[in-house]
Amino acid sequence: QDTVVSLQALAQYAALIPQEIRDVKVAVKGKGASPLEFHVHRNNKLVLHQASLPADTGTYTVQATGSGCVYVQTTLYYNIPPPKTEEVFVLDVETVPRKCDGVRKEFDIHVSVRYVGDRGTSNMALVEVEMLSGFIPVQSSMKEVRLFLWLSLRISKSVFQIYLSQK
């Protein structure tokens, strides 16, 4: 519905403006830079004329001379970097054995997760351990899992998920 409203507004605007563009020159001037100039006439009135301003900030003036109606638009793109965040979880991952001495059919993965944030609790967290290609979690080894404050365990073919509760 927004598209319909937009098209109606553009149609009403088009009915109000003069249809004949004879010759319009538009100059964009900034402090200390040579002006950007656009020349709009009957043969290029439907062509988008655009240019980048030389400086990101500053004062610019737009001056149009001639006979006709042109639409001038400026767009400013900016990026506000997100605030730096501290890590609130410490994750230690170790394989047993630590070194691969050849082809192995199985190995153990020891995963330790600790909350070290400023708040008293961390709410719920998800630890997801994805197996290396060709390996799957061994169901019987899940008995050895030592978890404190855990909500549930999920095991798929190649992923082991631990849902932890507070702290």
What's the story with the biggest beta sheet?
A: 3 strands, antiparallel
N-to-C SSE string, H for helix and E for strand: HEEEEEEEE
Q: Which overall shape is indicated by the principal axes computed on the Cα atoms?
A: elongated
Helix-strand category = mainly beta
Total number of strands: 8
In the CATH hierarchy, the third-tier topology of the largest domain is known as Immunoglobulin-like
The residue ranges in which pLDDT falls below 50 over 5 or more consecutive positions are none
> Any idea what the CATH architecture of the largest domain is?
Sandwich
Task: Write a structural description.
- By secondary structure, the chain is mainly beta.
- The chain has two domains: 21-78, ubp-family deubiquitinating enzyme fold, CATH 2.20.210; 89-164, Immunoglobulin-like, CATH 2.60.40.
- The chain has one helix spanning 2-16, and strands spanning 23-30, 36-41, 60-67, 89-96, 108-115, 125-130, 150-155, 159-164.
- The strands form three sheets. A three-stranded antiparallel β-sheet has the order 2-1-3, with no helix packed on it. Strands 6-8-7 form a three-stranded antiparallel β-sheet, with no helix packed on it.
- Strand 7 and strand 8 form a beta hairpin.
- The mean pLDDT is 81.
